[in-house]
Automatic annotation (TrEMBL):
Pfam families noted in UniProt: Rotamase_2 (PF13145)
Domain PpiC: 115-245
Entry keyword annotation includes Nucleus: no
Name used for this protein in its record: PpiC domain-containing protein
Signal sequence segment: 1-20
Residue runs in coiled coils: none
Signal recorded as keyword: yes
GO molecular function (one): peptidyl-prolyl cis-trans isomerase activity
């Protein structure tokens, strides 16, 4: 049994001495002043992939910090002279949080559907300086093929051509041979996304490498990588609309947010007045 398991079992044994409590299916590890830390909460907090002694150290530190926080809270709770004021602040915060959450859900639901593609495109065209690319973008085609695949010479000829015949042949070839096939003549791809697929450091270190080298073939011990760049967008130029679209939509929603919320409040007030739910004394 590992150190972490021994540590947890020991804590569970201590927790088992507590009075009967409905833990709603959770496994208690520690109890302090009728407050419980559960095994499931500890597991949720533990970083993914942590194992062995690292997990034991993390668990021990997490539990100790949890205990200290509970003890400090209990001490503070019993020594604040005006608990009524704190309760009022908590109630006020809860009220504000509920209203904010409800408003955000309504805004995203209602206004999100009202923002049209035409509005987004109009804003994009009127504010071109706001949407500059922070890295190069490309359009073209990428294919990753096992080095043992047959007819690689044909692929070398096809991938460089933006013709329907060449594209058709590549697509048919990719079905039974390619590990990865990505056609993006019709959309812009960040160069960083391409760099993650092909083992060529020059793409990372030279921002204009793919502007000068429109056809790239690289191989390692297992694969051949073919990249054709049909169009190249340098960093600093206007970002393609497809990448600015979500940002513009959020901007337009924010511009309409205040007007929408005020209109909603006015509608609620009118409805309550009509239903005589407002009583003045």
């Amino acid at each position: 049994m590992g150190k972490f398991s021994i540590f947890v079992v020991g804590l569970m044994t201590l927790a088992g001495c507590s009075q009967a409590v409905d833990h709603k299916g959770k496994t208690p590890l520690v109890e302090v002043g009728h407050e419980f830390l559960y095994k499931e909460d500890l597991q949720a907090a533990m970083p993914v992939g942590m194992r062995g002694q690292d997990s034991a150290r993390f668990a021990e530190e997490y539990i100790h910090n949890w205990i200290k926080d509970v003890l400090l809270y209990k001490k503070a709770e019993g020594n604040i002279p005006d608990n009524v004021k704190v309760d009022e602040l908590v109630a006020s915060y809860r009220k504000a949080l509920i209203m904010h959450t409800y408003q955000e859900e309504l805004v995203n639901q209602k206004l999100g559907n009202e923002i049209s593609d035409a509005e987004i495109e109009q804003y994009y065209n009127q504010n071109t300086g706001m949407f500059s690319a922070n890295q190069p973008y490309v359009q073209g085609l990428f294919m990753k093929v096992p080095i043992s695949a047959q007819h690689l010479n044909n692929v070398r000829a096809w991938y460089k051509k933006n013709t329907q015949d060449a594209i058709d042949k590549l697509e048919k070839f990719s079905i039974g041979n390619a590990v990865s096939y990505d056609y993006f003549y019709d959309r812009w791809i960040p160069v960083s996304e391409i760099a993650a697929k092909i083992p060529l450091k020059a793409i990372d270190t030279d921002a204009n490498y793919l502007n000068r080298n429109r056809n790239v073939e690289v191989r390692d011990t297992a694969y051949c990588y073919f990249l054709h760049v049909e169009n190249f967008l340098p960093a600093g130029q206007q970002l393609p609309l497809e990448y600015a679209k979500s940002e513009i939509k959020e901007i337009l929603i924010n511009l309409k947010r205040v007007e929408f919320i005020n209109r909603m409040k006015d509608d609620l007030y009118k409805e309550a007045s009509d239903d005589k739910d407002i009583i003045y004394y």
